[in-house]
Design goal:
With 301 residues, this protein is an alpha/beta fold. The model is unreliable at 1-24 and 36-55 (pLDDT under 50). The longest helix has 51 residues, at 49-99. The strands form 2 sheets. The protein has a 9-stranded mixed β-sheet, covered by helices on one side. A 3-stranded mixed β-sheet has the order 1-3-2, with helices on one face. The protein is 36% helix and 20% strand. The chain contains 7 helices and 12 strands. It is elongated. Helix 3 packs across helix 4 (142-150). The protein has 3 domains: 51-99; 108-174, Ubiquitin-like (UB roll) (Roll), CATH 3.10.20; 179-300, 3-Layer(aba) Sandwich (Rossmann fold).
Length: 301
């Protein structure tokens, strides 16, 4: 059998003979609590320096780590802001250089022209592009730049490409004359679209062109010329070789003059194949005038 523990010093212990619980006096209980629980609020004389430091050290270390993290976070944000600001400045400088400054602008001596023909030369094309000299290349719109080039009568079509850092290259498709309209002292040279390419003295007119008799001062002169040229292009070689000239007062009243002086009233440009076949048949009869404007009811006289 275990022996009961010896009572603490300063405590009054009673051991009832009847086996009831141990009873402590109020004085002993207070002394026991005072000894077991350290006081943190007692005066300076009752506090232990080593105990205070033990409680304060973890708090000071945590505060220091939090401060270090805040400083590191502020440094990261400062670096990011600096990098973002630098990038924005560089992008702005690049945009300004490319889009607005004269560093990459068009120069008059950097305009290259390719494809000039007999009726248009490089100087004309370069002069047409010259109004854009000083404009940054990135802001040049091809359609706008080529508009005055395409307005040149000797230019059928044109394309443009940039030649960095200061130039452009313009390639043109020249318009070639396919017909002429003879006046009193001059000759109008016409392209296949009815545009007057050039007006030259009669002595300088090139040969091998279809002779047209059209009033080029009329409002629909170009349309009339195109109608006549389409009729001539639709003729078979056997008939085309016999046509000396063609005249028209409108696209709906075209007349051909053959090499023997006979006239062909062609009418408009519709049904060219049928009209040509009817004319070849009528030519076997012989006449001074052939009317195939209504090919299903032709007449001769």
């Amino acid at each position: 059998m275990k022996r009961p523990n010896a009572p603490r010093a300063g405590r009054s212990t009673q051991h009832p003979s009847d086996g009831s619980d141990l009873v402590l006096s109020e004085t002993d209980l207070d002394a026991t609590l005072a000894a077991d629980v350290p006081s943190s609020t007692s005066g300076a004389s009752g506090s232990s320096p080593s105990a205070a430091g033990a409680y304060q050290a973890p708090v000071s270390s945590l505060h220091r780590r939090l401060s270090e993290r805040q400083r590191a976070s502020r440094r990261r944000w400062a670096v990011r802001a600096s990098v973002g600001l630098t990038a924005a400045v560089l992008v702005g400088l690049l945009v300004w250089t490319v889009m607005f400054s004269s560093l990459l602008a068009l120069r008059a001596d950097a305009v290259a022209v390719r494809g000039e023909g007999a009726w248009v030369d490089a100087t004309e094309v370069a002069d047409a592009v010259g109004e854009w000299v000083g404009t940054p290349l990135a802001r040049l719109d091809s359609a706008t730049v080529l508009e005055p080039v395409l307005a040149l009568p000797g230019v059928q079509d044109a394309t443009m490409s940039r030649a960095w850092p200061h130039g452009v290259s313009v390639t043109i498709e020249p318009r070639e004359p396919v017909a002429r309209v003879t006046g009193a002292d001059t000759v109008d040279l016409l392209g296949d679209d009815g545009v007057v390419i050039a007006t030259v003295p009669a002595a300088q007119s090139p040969g091998g062109l279809a002779e047209l008799a059209i009033d080029m001062s009329a409002e629909d002169a170009a349309q009339t010329a195109v109608g006549v040229l389409e009729v001539l292009a639709a003729l078979p070689d056997s008939l085309g070789a016999r046509v000396e000239s063609a005249s028209a007062t409108s696209p709906r009243s075209i007349t051909l003059v053959l090499d023997d002086g006979a006239q062909v009233l062609w009418g408009d440009g519709s049904e060219p194949e049928l009209k040509a076949a009817v004319l070849e048949t009528l030519l076997q009869v012989g006449a001074q005038e052939y009317d195939v404007s209504a090919p299903l009811a032709p007449t001769t006289s």
